[in-house]
Amino acid sequence: MKKLIILCALFLMVSLLVMTVVGCTQKSYDVIENILIYNAQSPDYPPPPGGWTFQTSGSYPTQIQRLFDPGDKIFLGLVISEDIEGEVTFSRVAFFNRSTNAEETITVSRDDLGPFEPGWKGLLGLLEPWPVPEEDGEYELRLYTGEALEASALFNVGIWPASWGPEMIRRPAPIYDVKVILGQEEPKVDVAVYIKGGLPQGCEASHWYSVEPTIGDTVYIEVGVRHLKDTPCEDEIFFEETVNLWPSLLKGFIQGETYRVDVNGHATPFVMP
Question: Which of 198, 203, 192, 204 minimizes the C-alpha distance to 247?
């Protein structure tokens, strides 16, 4: 009996040793090394140029990355870990409301799901950005493989994050001049819009613009300013912005026909070249 007990004890010790060795030689890695959210509606958050690196790291950032307004659109930058074996393909992308715990799977293009090789770095949703939820709140953008949650990043809709400091407000910018600039470079047609607006001073103001989908014969551009909520603003200075209209916005426009660009209610006609 004693021999049996001793043999069992030895077997258990050997088993634990083997498990320890195996556990030391096997290491699990996050599929996502880096995730970063961008606002497709705002020139303040353009995609980074070639050779860029992220300023944040980790699969689950703990700080609010962006503030969106209803109607804005989102895309994201992603770095796949070099340590994974084989390619990774995402099963779905979802918005998770942290107040209600409601999760909504969003429609994305097939290319945005992969497959992606180890070490891949790029932008998802850039060509077809995803509309943010219409309800104000704090959200997670989540990426899944199968049923496994691989990464998430935080963003807000309509609610200024307290961690950002003094609250900013957003309002339409006064518009003083709008010109449509036409050019043709085969095989595409270039249409750009020059905008001159007013920007208040002394209240940390910045300007932004959003190009909306074409309705009928009109392209709508919203231009606004954001500044500190409880700080008096001083006299305005001018800002200038040239907005290039994507060919997809002009799809269906006929050469020689007259169309309009509406910037904050200022309508300017142009003839499609």
Answer: 192
Residue 13 lies in a domain: no
Q: In this structure, is the dihedral angle defined by the CA atoms of residues 97, 103, 108 and 113, taken in order, positive or negative?
A: positive
Neighbouring CB atoms inside 10 A of 202's CB total 12
The domain in which residue 95 lies consists of 32-164
* Residues present in the chain in total: 273
* In contact, 221 and 211? CB cutoff 8 Å: yes
Check if the beta carbon of residue 131 is closer than 8 Å to that of residue 114: no
Q: Does residue 60 belong to any structural domain of this protein? A: yes
Q: Which amino acid is at 73?
A: K
pLDDT in tens, 149-195: 999 999 999 888 888 888 888 889 999 999 999 876 555 668 899 99
> Residue 190 has which token pair?
């270039």
Is the model's pTM score more than 0.90? Answer: no
Q: 3-state class of 178 per DSSP? A: strand
Tally of domains in the chain? 2
Pair (102, 129) in one structural domain:
yes
Residues 205 and 238: their CA atoms lie apart, in Å, by 12
Alpha-carbon distances of 141 from 76, 95, 150, 204, 230, rounded to whole Å: 9, 5, 11, 29, 31
